[in-house]
Amino acid sequence: MSTPAMSPAQAAASAAAASFAALEARLDYLSSQEIEQVRLAYRFADEAHLGQMRKNGDPYITHPIAVAQQCTEWKLDAQALCAALMHDVMEDCGITKADLTERFGPQVADLVDGLTKLDKLAFDSREQNQAESFRKMLLAMARDVRVILIKLADRTHNMRTMGDMPRSKWARISSETLEIYAPIAHRLGLNNNYRELQDLAFKHLHPWRYQALAKALDKSRSRRKDLIARVQGELESAFARHGMEVRIVGREKTLYSVYRKMDLKHLSFAQVTDIYGFRIILPELLDCYRALGILHQLYKPLPGKFRDYIAIAKMNGYQSLHTTLVGPFGTNIEFQLRTPTMDVVAESGVAAHWLYKASDPDSPASQDLNTQWLQSLLDIQQETHDAAEFWDHVKIDLFPDSVYVFTPKSRIMAMPRGATAIDFAYAIHSDVGSCAIGAKINGEQAALRSELNNGDVVEIITSPHAKPNPAWLGFVKTGRARSKIRHHLKTLALEESMALGERLLRQALRAEGIATLPPFDGEHQGVWDKLLRFTGNRQREELLTDIGLGKRIASMVGKKLAALLAEAGEKPDLLLISQERYGTAQEDRPSQGVVTLDGSEGTSVQYATCCRPLPGDRIVGYLGRGEGLVVHTDDCPVGKKLLHRDAERFLEVEWAEEASRLFESTVLVTVVNGKGVLAKVAAALAAAEADITHIHMGDEAAQSATDLRFTIAVRDRVHLAQVLRQLKRTPSVVRAQRVRPVRNGA
Fold it and tell me: Per the residue annotation, which of 73, 77, 92, 234 is the catalytic one?
């Protein structure tokens, strides 16, 4: 694609932007040796990108230089600047990580690798590609936050030059910026970049709205110029009278934040009153509180609009006092009061680490900020190996509208708004979350799903025998809690499936005349290795899990294992074959041995909701593909349909003499409408010791007689019969019966 010819002035500007001099003037905080290292990286990048051009016709090297210039504003070190200059060489120029390691050392190579997308791998979709890229970048960021700082500088420059890109790409890139990069910048306290990315994305996502709002803001600015000058004068006079040195900076809401407020609250531009504000920088922390008193004497504060982010800092390290006052002419004006140190952190977030390191290496502010969230990324990765799932967890944590709660020992914990007691438990420690059985909030008993509010004192009650509940996934709010719960449930499901698979294979082997499953030891190692090659599994545990999940048929694997044992000299027992294979056969189907069920099998065995089998019912077992053993009553139409289609997947199952838990059943109760009839039916169920788990009353208007459908938990068929008899004796009950699945054509 040809680019338009540039004028001499444009050509000179382009050449200047592509030269190292454009960057060198900003490197005065580095040593001469470090500047030379950055110069070598510039030359390497310049040669690698030789001949490549930007959409506007500039040499491609102007982009890496602009990214590095942004990094110098945060005073990033020489290694980070080298990585910024070379951030595209692996992706666009065929340079390998080994090349970079050899030339610039392993740290620079790791930084560049963390920034490189995974375009060269084959993914099922663009979404999967993007998710995997972000997973890699965020994990590199958790190990070294400079990765995300360089990435944000890269995205900021790309957004500034978006006008040179085809319009067809504007919406996708701008949406990605609003949904991902701007929240990450906010999460890390990079407020300047956060605001700029939001405004640039808004400008290219909704150009007409942006222009209209920009014009409205210009008019408002000129109208309120006198108001701003008056407030600034009054502030300076008030602080001078009290002998306080202050620096007053005007602040204006960004266009995107004005637009969002109008959109969310359905306001017109004229109704948005807090567009303007002032930032007051004071020498010491206590001066902030003195200045707050002076402001509240000067103008009246709005009730409920004061926030102390100094005593309790935001999750990204931000500290300031916020107050909204009623200024001249009844105008609401927001004031932010902070020290110079707080101001640097407020505008630069995690990047303040390098800003302080450059000026005062021993300053406590030079410690890493917000490392808690970065470390949590690594924790989530340990449980989540699927890129899309990892990204879902991270997105949950990117919008931390926080509440602040306390442990019983007065430690402050910042949680996302809407977080529950179980989120708090996992934030304390994963073992506390996994063993939680209840909570106390402000000294009172509370459910684990209780939402937390600012100032709550939360205590978690644990039990060593407790396990995570799948229902928790319906209300947890933090990515950490969600990933920990999912990981535990997956591990538990695999363990239970493996135990079921071993049981099924042992029974299938008995049907082939082999009494016991051969141990996985030296003597039988060769047999197991041959069996694993036959099935395509890598390990014995994986094969047993596949059998338990129904991905492999136990009878087929059992036949092969028996043949391999016969080859090794272990002959089948003919008497055992006749007993096991044909002793309990029905409908000319060979049996794999009977599986005994008592309800304690966990997730590896499911009791079908279409027929809800109870101990005492005649039952059959269907080994579903990937869903484990599903138990149906023998007269269930769904089970019969599966039997005709997939007979080889059916197993003989029977109930144990005593069940280990209650089982659900659905009963239909027809009642004559009257006062308190539902309470009477519920009382009858309670008297029969049946637990109500669900009630459905239908959507139609109440008639003289109404059908109530209860899902109840009972011990067995005998207990259900007792429940039905108790219901039939209840006044107002016309009929009570167990709900059976409807046969086709009935």
Answer: 92
